[in-house]
Amino acid sequence: MLNILRPGVTRVMTPLGRVLARLGISPDTITVIGTLGVAVSALVFYPLGHLFLGTVVITVFVLADMLDGVLARMTGTGSRWGAFLDSTLDRLADASIFSGLILHFVLKDDPEIVLAGVALFCLVAGSLVSYAKARAEGLGMTANVGIAERGERLVVALVAAGLSGLGVPYVLAIGLWLLAAASAVTVVQRMVHVYRQAVER
Question: Which of 21, 77, 90, 122 has the fewest CB atoms within 10 Å distance of its CB?
């Protein structure tokens, strides 16, 4: 999903990238700032019940995940370290979002333990999706398959949380259950894909 949106977002962010390049700001700096912004916003706004405001702020910082790539291409400073840092901090940002939702459910006056468990499952399954791809690539194979890559998981989680913050009933629960199922399916899809490559070899 984000791969489809990426060209348009890149065009919008290019002028800002030029400004940052002239100021001498590195892509790694943008990556760190974006991740810290997501983590702090998710772990402050969501537990306090400010789902809509939190989602808006988180979305702004999530866009930095695309801005660092734009800046790296413009300045020619892309590196293996930058790619590693970006991927690693992506996991931290994702964990912060779902941890914030877990705290939101647990700290409510009437705790929703089942939904907290579903959010926890989404967190774990999302990490498995990313790990399966990274491990496959480390073994010289690919795992670029699945119905719920990181972009899709972020969009579903943030849209559901934002709409819930606006008072739309059941949307967060539905979003999390769908995301949990899609993440589990994606893990299986990637395992099967890697297994087939391993057998062929």
Answer: 77
The structure's pTM equals 0.89
**Whose structure tokens read 């934002």?**
162
Active-site position among 86, 90, 109, 110: 90
Query: Is a pLDDT exceeding 70 seen at residue 4?
Result: no
Residue 22 has pLDDT above 70, yes or no: yes
Indicate if 86 belongs to the active site. Answer: no
pLDDT in tens, 166-187: 999 999 999 999 999 999 999 9
